[in-house]
From TrEMBL:
The chain crosses the membrane at residues 471-490. One of its GO terms (cellular component) is membrane. It is found in: Membrane. It comes from Anopheles farauti. The keyword DNA damage does not apply. GO terms for molecular function: glucuronosyltransferase activity. This is UDP-glucuronosyltransferase. Its EC number is 2.4.1.17.
Amino acid sequence: MSLRILLLVGVLAATGCSGADILMITMGGTKSHKIPFLELAKGLVPRGHNITFLNGFPADFTLHGLQEVTPSGLVEYIRNYTNWDLLGARMRGDMPLSVWDVFRFPWQVCDATLEDKETLDLLGRKFDLLILDGAFPECALGLVYRLGVPFMYINTVGFYTGMMALAGNPTPYSTTPIFYRPLTDDMSFLERLSNSFFTMFVDALYVPTMLCLQHMVRRHLGPDVPSIWSLGRNVSFILQNGQASVTYPRALLPNVAEIACIHCKPAVPLPKDLEDFIAGAGESGFIYVSMGSSVKAANMPDHLRKLLVQTFARLPYRVLWKYEASPALLTDLPANVKIGRWLPQQDILGHRKLRAFVTHGGLLSMFETVYHGVPVVTMPVFCDHDSNAAKAVTDGYALKLELETLTTEKLIRAIHKVIHDPKYRREAKRRQVLLKDQRSTPLETAIYWTEYVIRHNGAYHLQSPARNMNFLQYYCLDLVLFFLGVVYLIRSLTRLYLNPRIVQLGKEKLH
Ligand SMILES: *[C@@H]1O[C@H](CO)[C@@H](O)[C@H](O)[C@H]1NC(C)=O
Ligand SMILES: *[C@@H]1O[C@H](CO)[C@@H](O)[C@H](O)[C@H]1NC(C)=O
Ligand SMILES: *[C@@H]1O[C@H](CO)[C@@H](O)[C@H](O)[C@H]1NC(C)=O
């Protein structure tokens, strides 16, 4: 043990605050879901906490105090499920994921995870806190119940409000755009109609898929596991992957804190090969192209790849392109283009000579682009990309293109526009200043609330009773119904009483 760790342990012992054992779980189907968890873990480990992290993507690095558990059933299920060509589907105008695929993922991934001995071994250990992904947490709620400890969420897909709503946060259709549509929080009548329809569609699909999932959970963990809904309502705290200046200003309960950009970092100098490549462009600079980790650029249809290559060849800039294939396979690459299987995205975004970012518009990429103040051309593919794009366009630092109707001309024009119209960079910089103007960093906020929940063994005193109310109760519609009933009753009685015939009969009897 190094002296520093010894000192740390000494300090912790002296303050009476001991390290906690924390289990983090994400069953998100894409690797980006890991990022906020790993950032929080890196912040918690030096404070003496012990982190175990269950996910479907084998670890890329080791950190003393952090143990990643990647059950082979989960890893293999996700690998099978995500061997997709999302770009091709989007270009054909198809739904990138069919309704069946959306329906089957939550319970099939749950089955694959709970079947695995590595997962069940965790039930033999003791934890102080569980931190689950707000996207697909339901399966892990079974583990929460078995371990009998408090839990929190990191709501990785910031625009997905399902778990926030279950915890009692107000999410009215009027101002809460559904995460998979190109809508903002400022909607016309027709947009609100569409938003309500698509939200109800998701809610309707959610019920049967959760019933299947609940069946899986009870099969693996015992028939006494309560309903997924009642377990989900008992969340102690939610770390929300959003921030009013980059997502939307929302009404949040006191057990929610916003931590967008928890992973954002100032740029450091690039490796020499990349720096040399960029320097070769002189003062004209370069653009950066990445479709993120989930889209799998190497699976894209050849006509799209050719379209991109032809576009890049005609640009007066150098182009750094994240593309998961060996350069030897791409014989038609123009001299101004360099590809990389993995590129240090934030160091590139923070580079002085970067002119624009061409992206699929994943949420973390959008946060990074604002953090580094870079204008973007976005081409949404699936999941929340459309709502991320809608927000960035509204904020004025992005131009959005439709993959279905994409042409070389359109892409060239869009890239030139975000570079030469100063509005785009100015708005990116303005959002950057707003994002950074916070009382504490997102990581400090996340650490504070995580330790708060540990200190108090849950944060049940922050829970709102709204979480236990149904729609009728929450809006007092049951009272309205009751009131209407009383009015109706009184009216019927008075009618009966004032009916002339009855009154007449009554008079006759008196005589
Ligand atoms: C930390 O977790 C490991 C498993 O990764 C476990 O063996 C160890 O006992 C834990 N340490 C503490 C101090 O809780
Ligand atoms: C993944 O796909 C292979 C080949 O189709 C299949 O044999 C395997 O059972 C699948 N694994 C899971 C976990 O679904
Ligand atoms: C919430 O979780 C805590 C800790 O596991 C448990 O003691 C409590 O009974 C749960 N409450 C409900 C309503 O499920």
